[in-house]
Amino acid sequence: MTPEKLSFHLINYIERRSSEKNYVFKLALVLMCLSWMFATPIVLLFFLKDQMPFAWEVVMQKSQNLTSNLEQLAPGLWLSKKVFRLTIPVLINLMYLNPTIVILFQIAAGYLTSVSSYKLSFRLLKDPVQATFLTAGLAFLYFGRAAYFEYDYCWFDAFSYIFILLAMQNTNAVLVFLFSFMASWNDERGFIALFVVLLFHQFENLNDSKIYICDVFKINKRVAAVLGAAVLYVAIRLFLSMQFDMHTPLNGANFHVFNRTYYYFLIGNLTFFEGFWLLLMFALILLFYRKDYLRLILLTSSFLIIMVVSFCVSDITRSGAFAVPLVFIAVDYLKQSQSVLTMRKLLFLCLLVSFFIPPVFVCADWTAKQWVNTQTLVFLIKQIFDIL
Question: Which pTM does this prediction carry?
Answer without folding.
Answer: 0.92
